[in-house]
Amino acid sequence: MQYKIPIQVENEDTIILGLSLRQMGIIIVGLILAFGFFNKFQATFPKTPLIIICVLIVGIFFIIAKFRTHEMTFLPFVLNLARYKINGNGAKGEGRIWTR
Questions:
Q1: What gap in Å lies between CA 41 and CA 63, rounded to an integer?
Q2: Three-class SS state of 20
Q3: What mean pLDDT do residues 15-38 have?
Q4: 18-30: b (≥16 Cβ within 10 Å) or e
Q5: Which residues pair with 72 in a beta bridge?
Q6: Which of 26, 31, 65, 89 has a 20 to 30 Å separation from 78 between CA atoms?
Q7: CA distances in angstroms from 19 to 13, 45, 62, 92, listed in the order given
Q8: What is the model's pLDDT at position 99?
Q9: What's the pLDDT tens digit per position in 57-78?
């Protein structure tokens, strides 16, 4: 018996407005942090700069949620970039050394 294997198993299904469940979770965490920040500092800061800071927090989380490059999301990209920088990137002209 033959079974058809889906090609793109790793793709996430979109739920609302082109966002997957993982992306909505990241954005919701950003909204919760911004709301908590607003509630904590609303008595000490003026409202306009506080709202701007909260919008920036939500915007950063939205960018992190929508980030995708070379089929990597934000966290694997940052971890691979750190590994690339730590292990040496060949900037000194050394390049990679291949052994048999």
A1: 24
A2: strand
A3: 91
A4: ebeeebeebbeeb
A5: 69
A6: 31
A7: 8, 33, 10, 42
A8: 61
A9: 999 999 999 888 877 888 888 8
